[in-house]
Specification:
The complex is a heterodimer of chains A (about 270) and B (about 625).
Chain A lengths: L4 H19 L3 H13 L1 H10 L7 H23 L8 H22 L17 H22 L11 E7 L8 E7 L5 E9 L4 E9 L4 E6 L6 H5 L4 E9 L8 E9 L7
Antiparallel strand pairs in A: 1-2, 2-5, 3-4, 3-6, 6-7
Chain B lengths: L3 H23 L2 H4 L13 H26 L5 H20 L6 H23 L6 H16 L17 H13 L3 H28 L2 H11 L14 H21 L5 H16 L3 H22 L8 H18 L2 H22 L20 H29 L3 H19 L6 H29 L6 H20 L11 E4 L2 E4 L1 H10 L5 E3 L2 H8 L6 E2 L6 H6 L7 H7 L2 E7 L26 H4 L8 E5 L3 E5 L5
Parallel strand pairs in B: 3-4, 3-5
Antiparallel strand pairs in B: 1-2, 5-7, 6-7
The chains are: A alpha+beta (about 270), B mainly alpha (about 625).
Chain lengths: ~270, ~625
Amino acid sequence: MRRHGDLEAAVGGAAVCALLALALPFDLLRVLVGAPLLFFLPGYAITAAIFAHGRIPRSQFLVFSLGLSLAVLALGALVLNYLPGGVRAGWWAVLLFLVVLGACRGAALRRPKRAPAPIAWTAPRVNGAQAGLLAGGALLVIAAVVLAFVPLSATNALGYTELSIRPLEAGAGPGVRVAVGSGERDDSSYRLVVKFGDGEGEASSRIALAPGQTQVLELEPPDNSPAAMSGAVAIPVTATLFKEDSPEPGRPFRQVTTVIPPGEGSG
Amino acid sequence: MPSEAAGEAADAATFKAMEAGATKLRRGTAMRSDSTPSKARSWPEVGHLAPIVLSTGLGLALCSLANALSRATLEPALPVYWIGILVLALPIFYRLTASEASARERLILVCLLGLSLYCVKVFRDAPLFTFSDELIHAFNANQIADHHHLFRDNPILAATPYYPGLEGATSALMKLTGLSVYAAGTILVGAARLVLIASLFLLFQRVSGSARVAGLGAAIYAGNFNFLFWGAQFSYESLALPLLLLAMMALAEREVAPKQALRAWGAPVVLAMMAIVVTHHLTSYAVAGLLVGLSLAYWYVHRRWSPPNPWPFAILGILLAAFWLFVVASSTVGYLSPVLSDAFDAIGNTIGGEDEPRGLFQAGSTSVAPTPLGARAVALAAVALLAAGLPFGLRALWRRHRRQPFALLFGIAAVAFFATLALRLAPAAWETANRASEFLFIGLAFVLACACVEALRRRPRDRRTRPLIAAGIGLVLVGGAISGWPWDSQLARPLRISTAGETISSPPLALAEWAEEMPEGRFAASTADAGLLLVPGGKMALAGSSPPIEDVLDEEELAGWMLPMLRRNKIRYIAVDRREVSSDSLRGYYFSRRDKDEGLRPPSVSAKFNAVPGISRVYTNGPITVFDLGAQR
């Protein structure tokens, strides 16, 4: 590959990109180094190998570089699927590097000595006014992207309240995990009543939530309840939520149920 | 294997042929304007590009503002949106009609157009996928990233894991960069869009010998019904179609290449075809069909089967597609055959008068507001304009390009496009017609671009010609967007909203976020809820009619067959959504609005599970309730 600076740069770039994409801790940096390896270098190397003896127009070379890189990615997963460990980051890095290395080697063998690189880069010449217009366009695009990704207040969207229940993890003893989440538009206050078994015990809590807040409670049946003592029978649990700031605060607002399986009792 | 010397001669000949092509372009008055600028005057086109980039940025900002207004449930979002689209596109269209623009400038302009229109779709949905197909493919990509193997089950569309090209490529991005499936998929489809529009330009340029035809053709293609939204989604066709155009572009170059260079130009064709076959079923069949047509067209023009007649590629395309279909992805037969047979039945029934013709602009549900009359008029005017331009385009094509096999194929495709419009009147054939239009519009775009350039050549001094053509393409773009995507879904809806400094998710999204925290267990849910349970919920979720999940969710009483059917399908959780819109894979993901009435199913659709022994009601957020059927033992 000596004497062909573009091919040397492609192989060296692929090696560096592959290593950094695997090693760097921050996603943004990994995107920056991964992008050439994923979207350009494999296609560039393959195109250079295919058209090693003649030159094709720059626009076609660039389109082939991007398009054939996508083709390599689409086919690559199929190859990696049958390797030990399957489709993993390390294998992707190795595969893409090998594609670039192999194709560049092929290009170097076929390309005439002292042949120029297939793509000659020319920097655009812009004056102050043009630079200003281009920068203005870029700023508008950035503003558009930011606006698209920022959540906004939606005046007419209907809020809601979530209530969920599930038994505590195995080994954590008899009990339930109850979560109350507010998707309401304003601060809300609730009363949560959790009943264990048939009149064996009841726990009650007052909960105040701001929009977007969730409160999780882990509740156990009263120690003296027969079911909790024996641990031999399943304990049905019902959690009822009352919304205190609703027009009918005494009416159940949400209700969920679960069963604590037998064997979780303290006895 | 050819010797190095032979290969060297071959590629040198290719280069000479390319040079000759460029020289040919420079001949004649009209062609001269399309020539590539010399090195000494590199990038002179910046002078025209700079204000166009500014107007494109302004158009995108307006589109983003319109989506923001719509998410905030404020008006007037739609007028701002359409103004944004026109501000973005019209300056590009106008510049493309100019005779003095260079080929490179035109290529940059169409790339700018393609990427900007892709951004319009991205701005609508950010920061989550919300098209039903996107959620299916995103689930597949997550499965590959999490489990490191292809061909894992998809509970909603069983055929999709067997076409892993898109998801495999996405997993590469996810694995090597740490990006989420949304970010990786959005970048990947953006790159594919760039390949699509650039390949289309280069293909048209090679076939017509004119960069002006190429630029206008690519711009007209942006007006196809599916370009703005459906074709820009994270779905397998969004990668396969650009690869198809890449292969076609290489084939067009191969046609004019010297004999020794044929093999070189064939290599990218084969690579792209292989990638298409593992990426999308319909596109792989389209490639095979297109290559057969091209081979026949080549024979018709040149009366020979010898190279560069592409018949060997046609055989290869058929063999590859058949191998993949019957050896790897046999479930595709069961997926596609009902769609196609229903389409044929519907055509027969509609012609025979047994079925009512499908109304144009007809929504799937009565609760969806109809498309306004003005918008319908714009869409129909766009189709009328396309039809009016067709005879002129065909005449120009016959006069100038009838010795080009590709051009003949484009002419046939252009006529066939209008035949598929008739299929839209048959209810079950609508989808088939819609899918075919994306391929056939390639030919129509070329034919109409020939008509536009012919008009520009005939009236070089008429100052009205260029603005009229630019406005006409603008009409086609807007009309295509209206025809291709429901009027009420052009803009974003509130999915995540901000209140008191916090972000809250819509009820279906909140369900998915809750499910994400749950231990393993398969869900049954309405179509929209199931999509979000796949991504971001990360759960296996069944929906639809096979198995009959939607019957279980819709019925007011629990029938004897329901629980055994759910248990047979290993369902642990059933999510009952009272919102009727939850069955709508386009509109079911968002917040309900207090200023719009929403259809609700009766409370009994949910209450029927309350009293069943062994079933717990484990989650509710008002409209949506989840029941736990218990672990399978």
